[in-house]
């Protein structure tokens, strides 16, 4: 396979990484809020959160992407397809991360929360400064594996016309008649990116040891 | 003089169970009040009500003359105060827990400076300076950058005391601060508490350390089955002949050091 073809794939994987990274960050942040919502005693918060999670975990991502892509113009939002792609990925991963984080939030010791309460923390300060870091650390392995999952699932956004790594490989395969070379290269690139992600996850895990050996 | 804490007719029920059955208690400012009593008598529940971690079912609590949590209207009904008022009154209270409850993701210094930054909105360097001063007070200035998991139980509890003191409370509540510590570590925590008492801090201490209660306490309150059976100076409460229930309790809990004191 020629060097130019490979560079085209590398460039497309840049888009894959960018889309996924944004979706992972938005998904985690939204997931935290939704997860807290699910655990709220207030039905007005817990009901919508639970509906959100069951919808985005129950409907295939491919269908979600097509839905969002076709729904946005109806709402008067004429956004580029890459935005629809990021939105779809973010919402989907948020649902999974919310479910992952739920166990973490439930495991935050009550006394640690009471100590913050005594120190005068307001609810949102208590949430972001105490509950979130502890729940995040407790569920880190599951969060990282969901991040890797969504990166791989980003190959689906080609259906709304975003030319990311998989779509680029497809296009080049059909124009060069060398499908095997191109898909092998694309697979190698996905693998490399995921190694990098897993490494970042381990680095994070080490940083979050909080003094434990 | 206005009592630092004044409790009247406090009742606390958990469902059917009546855990506190009409408590009246005055905590004088600048003094140490020790709550003693058998396991399950309601000591922690009473202390948690004073911290508003638990809401009393009936009765009133005044902190420096200000109602805590609920206002009692002239016709005797209770109304919940707005959260701002509750927060303001509570900010006068510091609490130290049996299991320390340090924030595991922050260093000792972080634990002490955190609320100064997020709640009191102090700048980073001022918050850290104040936190460091508190750590020095409890003898842990050279452990500032260690995480709770790297500290002994006694050191963790001293950090927890420093964390509460950093917010400059008028009243400090302690719920069995030494009972989850190895015996050789209780001394360092009790010494910090002694120094605090000598400084004139108003303290309410739930403790099974009868020796500490007898020597440091100005007022002893003996709780049994949700009622305050006895209240007075250590001399009054521990003087023989003693109340039969207290005698029975002391037989079970009295450690040898305390036996010599009495
Ligand atoms: N959240 C709760 N729900 C139901 N019952 C409770 C709750 N908290 C405490 N109790 C009950 O209230 C009673 C008093 O408990 P409390 O913890 O105040 O006792 P204590 O005097 O502190 O005992 P100990 O010396 O063992 O700490 C106990 O019978 C306990 O089971
Ligand atoms: Mg107790």
Automatic annotation (TrEMBL), chain A:
Domain ABC transmembrane type-1: 9-201
Domain of life: Bacteria
UniProt keyword Cell wall biogenesis/degradation present: no
Keyword Magnesium tagged: no
Subcellular location, record wording: Cell inner membrane; Cell membrane
UniProt keyword terms in alphabetical order: Amino-acid transport, Cell membrane, Membrane, Transmembrane, Transmembrane helix, Transport
Cellular component aspect of the GO annotation: ATP-binding cassette (ABC) transporter complex
GO BP annotation list: amino acid transport
Topological type in the membrane: Multi-pass membrane protein
GO molecular function: transmembrane transporter activity
InterPro entries: AA_ABC_transptr_permease_3TM, ArtM/GltK/GlnP/TcyL/YhdX-like, MetI-like, MetI-like_sf
Transmembrane segments: 12-39, 51-72, 78-96, 182-204
Record-stated family: Belongs to the binding-protein-dependent transport system permease family. HisMQ subfamily.
Annotated protein name in UniProt: Amino acid ABC transporter permease
TrEMBL record, chain B:
Keyword list, A-Z: Amino-acid transport, ATP-binding, Cell membrane, Membrane, Nucleotide-binding, Transport
Signal peptide range in chain numbering: none
Keyword presence, Plastid: no
Membrane topology: Peripheral membrane protein
Domain of life: Bacteria
UniProt-recorded Gene Ontology molecular function terms: ABC-type amino acid transporter activity; ATP binding; ATP hydrolysis activity
Predominant location: membrane
Domain ABC transporter: 5-250
CDD domains: ABC_HisP_GlnQ (cd03262)
Presence of keyword Membrane: yes
Subcellular location: Cell membrane
Record's GO cellular component terms: plasma membrane
Cross-referenced PROSITE patterns: ABC_TRANSPORTER_1, ABC_TRANSPORTER_2
Family classification: Belongs to the ABC transporter superfamily.
Name this protein carries in UniProt: Amino acid ABC transporter ATP-binding protein
Organism this protein belongs to: Lichenifustis flavocetrariae
